[in-house]
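Q: Here's a chain of 216 amino acids. Please give me its 3D structure as tokens.
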Amino acid sequence: MYPSGISQDVSTQKGAFVEMKGYGHQMEGASRPTFFRGVVTVVTKLFNVVQPTNAYFGQKDIQQALLLRRLCKDLLFPHPEADHVHIVPTTRDSNDGLALSSRNAYLSANERKFAPAIYKALQYAKSAWSNGESKDRCISKAVSVIDEVKAQAAIDGVDMRLDYIEMNDSETFDVLDASSNYQLAGDIPMILSGALWVGKTRLIDNIVVGDLKRII
């Protein structure tokens, strides 16, 4: 599944790879170039070996899950078929809403206190979106939440750095226009996502606004 000896430089690699053109450079792909090329290649191999009836992926990695669903659709995978690629809602800490992840184990006790900031920021943006505010205003409010928590964390000696917060179309992954709002988008599902460094740990999270049932 994971062959050794392959160069990290895509231009020098040899062999068969799978690439999703036009879908891997937005959202997480902007911070992790060629990441999804590797994901799609490895999962293609997994599907070929296992030939599952159903496959399940977590919403926390929603771009990855949607890419894999499109992979099965575009390449006519018989196992699993695209509508058998399921996205499972994110499981969260019952107290502060932090998305459960293996990455959380890398957080110190002090860092863990500030980790829920990313989810809090996304919630503020979702609320603003539901109230009819523009996309830019929603993102601005989310960033303000991060800035406030970041200042508090600094007092406790915790370094925080925002990678991104953005809102993207769930079909194309294109960034929404600055003036877009709920009235214009309606129930079309949009992905409100972000990535935040807390200390040396990079946390990601997302919220779907609009008709969640169209995705999950």
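Q: Can you summarize the key feature?
A: The mean pLDDT is 94.
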